[in-house]
Amino acid sequence: MGNSLAPTAEMSILLHCIMETEDIWHKIQEEAEDVIKVEPRLRNFLERTVRFKPTLEDALAAYLSRKLGTASACFPTDLFLEAYSEHPETIEAIKRDLQAVDERDPACHSLLSVLLYMKGFHAISSHRLAHYLWTSENRKDLALYLQSVNSEIYCVDIHPAARIGSGVMLDHATGFVAGETSVIEDDVSILHGVTLGGTGKEEGDRHPKVRRGVLIGAGAKILGNVEIGESSKVGAGSVVLKDVPAHVSVAGVPAKVVGKTQDLPAFRMNHNL
């Protein structure tokens, strides 16, 4: 896992993260077959969700449609497939999210388990459809409705306008909030109970901008149009009210700089300050 990485490991990490689409889906299907051999009671479930699906896109679209359908019938499989077709970069981001969870979460032991059981991954994948709808003409109401269903099912509240990059891990997910003008760049790791919020009733650009490689600990509150600099670390339970420079650790209420970081704390997942 990430805690053993050397400071010069960034390039090898990124090369490892770039896996061909066919390789990812082939590996997931192989993992499903291995599980069936050990636990045949899961055969019907895994055949329906993975083994008989031709692509990752088809599998994820059908699975999320069924999950969200417990609250509504408004999100059929073809709506997800439309988003993936119109914006191929969405499915590329989803693949990197899958790998991010598989590589950074010590409780996760397969891509298959990420796809089927990790609600942080599900919540971000559902948000990607909401964001597609929000940025499409005259579909904001459906986007907002999907936001509310996503909140009900996965216990997160991400505004459809919020921009989320690729290779993002939302660990546990419960209680995560991201406001309308929030930005989360690539290769970020966020624990549960984190808020990317505003500071009051101001309008316009009013939410945090989380740059690449950042690690945000459980329960941290980041408020206002502040920048969390690249490869920085926010300690658990901290309250951040002003910009955080790149390559530092901050902690406390209010948060203050307590040390420096090595490259990409999001990959290391080391919360020690």
Report on this model:
The chain has 2 domains: 9-155, serine acetyltransferase, domain 1 (Orthogonal Bundle), CATH 1.10.3130.10; 162-273, UDP N-Acetylglucosamine Acyltransferase, domain 1 (3 Solenoid), CATH 2.160.10.10. The longest helix has 18 residues, at 21-38. Strand 14 (248-251) and strand 15 (256-260) form a beta hairpin. Helix content is 43%, strand content 14%. The protein is built from 10 helices and 15 strands. The protein is an alpha/beta fold and 273 residues long.
Task: Note the topology.
Blueprint: H1 10-17, H2 21-38, H3 43-51, H4 56-68, H5 77-86, H6 88-104, H7 111-117, H8 119-134, H9 140-154, E1 157-158, E2 163-164, E3 169-170, E4 177-178, E5 183-184, E6 189-190, E7 195-197, E8 209-210, E9 215-216, E10 221-223, E11 227-228, E12 233-234, E13 239-240, E14 248-251, E15 256-260, H10 265-268
Parallel strand pairs: 1-4, 2-5, 3-6, 4-7, 5-8, 6-9, 7-10, 8-11, 9-12, 10-13, 12-14
Antiparallel strand pairs: 14-15
Helix pairs in contact: 2-3, 4-5, 5-6, 6-7, 8-9
